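ok so i was messing around last nite and threw this chain in just to see what happens. nothing serious, just curious
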Amino acid sequence: MVILAIDPAVSKKIAYALFKNEDLKLYGKFDKVQDLAMLFNHNIDLVVTEEMYLGENPKTFGQLSKIVGKIELLCDLYNIKCREIAPATWKAHHGLMNKPKDFVQKLENKIIETLTDRKIDDQDIKDAILLGLCHIEQQKWAIKYN
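result:
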């Protein structure tokens, strides 16, 4: 299964991580949603993106909701399934909730370095990778325990 995990953004580039089965194959950033369509040449089975939540800034929520809507429309046009995962869900999955910032950064780095054998400094790319890993691991657990 080929999974494209996307960390949407408004005022910066959109981060992505492309997995084939459990292996991270590509990651990077794009300027706009339409550029993500280039990755659809990889026979994407599923796009996973963050579910929007109302934080401190309603304007940002509205802008991010539009970006996620564009991602979902693009998926519809290419007949690709789309799943949203709340940030609290994928962060809790990786043990990143309610922890000191320095602990979170070390744990994120350890998870990603174990997967990639390299250090990734870009927080948005790390978020996309962790989002994709959350989906993959949840699916493995669902299969194992059903």
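not much to say yet. Strands lie at 2-7, 14-20, 23-30, 46-50, 81-85.
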